[in-house]
Amino acid sequence: MIRQIHAFLAAGTDTAGTVNVIDRISDGMFSASEKLITFIFRFGVPITLIILLTVAAIKGVRALRRWQISRLRYERYFSDTGIFEGDHAELYEKITNPTPFPLLMVDIEAYVYGELALQGYTGLHSGDMQYFISRFNLPPKKTVVRRRRITAKKRGVYELGTASVTVGGEPVYFESHAKLYVYPRFVSVKPQTLPKNALSGDTQSARRLLTDPFSISGIRDMAPGDPFNSINFKATARTGGQRIKVNERDFCSGRIFMIFLNLGQPPEPIPGERFEQLMEAALSYSASLVRSALKTGYRVGFAANCGGEGVSPICFLPSSRQDTLKEILEEMAAARLFDCDISFSALLSKLLPSVKDADVFIMTPALLPEYGAAIKQYKKKNNSVTVMQTGR
Q1: What does the alpha-carbon distance between residue 217 and residue 249 come to, in Å, rounded to a whole number?
Q2: Of 69, 167, 209, 312, which one has the fewest beta carbons inside 10 Å?
Q3: 108 in the same domain as 22
């Protein structure tokens, strides 16, 4: 057609040739248009329909996926409410697909504190947090449970918040709270710091011998030396006979053991990192003393001049209930070392009316004169007082 146009221009004023060339151009354009229209009707309409159907299908799948994800039930929980520093626990993820359709490649994105080290974790750290993705392929109307082993590297209280799934570039959040107490590490204690032993005749006994036959404080596994009449047959039957359970009875004549812990800086401040190490060691030692005293039948109390989970300062009056150790350990896990809003001498004075005929154990970085005055007041109330300096 271009050659025909060039021929037309070369022909000059040849009218007949001009008309002939124009007719040919017109015929060629009509033929091309006819072929184009034929092609569109033969192939264009089906292709257009396919494209439209594909777009609609993609949108439908995305809408269905978003609806399914909005119906998901996701939760996290730990195998224990509390563990000791250095111990292991399991972090469980439980996800349920309640819809009648399968749901593939669901990526749950979440953060876990770096102090709770995930076994085999090789992902990215964001500050003190571990970022990880759990991928699930969920059958219809099924629940999948996955577990991850964690190691508690540092004392504290750790709460997990929300997790999310990204759909179409937008996150969908799940409230999945989980809480774990990491208690201070247990350590060996010096014999001279243990509660003063009771006398049985002329011989010292490490355990209170008189128990109350009518008061049961709990149930435990049978140990060598337990009498036959202490067996709890109902509790034993619930174990299928695998473990023999016995009743743990309260003691009739146990004394009181009261621990005071000073977590404040002395007049000559200790450098921050060293101070934190000393106070963590003091908390570990206090936890070990509490456990030892409860095992030997004492009513045990604990007080520290810092904040915890409850009211500040931390204050537990002497008790021998079954959950005493757990409650004290939880407050120790939550203890805030640099949040002492009461002086140690004020703490000693506050609890003086409540402590009598007790073994009092005081742990402090420095022994100030005002502490000595309070100690004299405790001794006047028939308390034996042992002092240990934690700053050495």
Answers
A1: 5
A2: 209
A3: no
pLDDT for the residue numbered 4: 53
The whole domain housing 169 covers 73-183
| 169-207 confidence digits (pLDDT tens) | 788 888 889 999 999 998 887 765 666 544 344 344 444
- What is the rounded distance in angstroms from the CA atom of residue 358 to the CA atom of residue 353? 12
Give yes or no: residues 241 and 279 share one domain. no
127 and 7, same domain (yes or no): no
How many helices, marked H, and strands, marked E, lie in the chain? Answer: 8, 19
Give the separation between CA 220 and CA 248, rounded to whole angstroms. 7
Q: Is residue 238 part of a domain?
A: yes
137 contact partners, CB below 8 Å, separation of at least 6 = 102, 103, 104, 105, 106
| Tokens coding 342 | 């009461």
Which residues have a Cβ under 8 Å from the Cβ of 207 and sit 6 or more positions away? Answer: 198, 296, 297
Nearest C-alpha neighbor of 291 from the set 181, 198, 184: 184
Quick one: which of 66, 96, 75, 97 has its CA closest to 172? 66
Is residue 206 in some structural domain? no
d(CA 392, CA 388): 9
84: domain CATH number is: 2.60.40.10
The residue-averaged pLDDT of 268-294 equals: 90
Pick from 265, 223, 269: nearest CA to 247 = 223
Residue 304: alpha-carbon gap to chain centroid: 25
- Cβ contact 222:231 at 8 Å: yes
Q: Which burial class, exposed, middle or buried, applies to 300 when counting CB atoms under 10 A from its CB (0-12, 13-18, 19+)?
A: buried
For Cα atoms 256, 261, 265, give the angle at the middle one, nearest 5 degrees.
165
The H or E element containing residue 367 is none
Residue whose pair of structure tokens reads 């939550």 in the numeric block? 334
Per the document, the length of the chain is 392
Tens digits of per-residue pLDDT, 23-66?
A: 666 666 666 666 666 666 666 667 777 777 777 777 777 788 88
Half-sphere exposure of 142 (CA within 13 A, CB side): 11
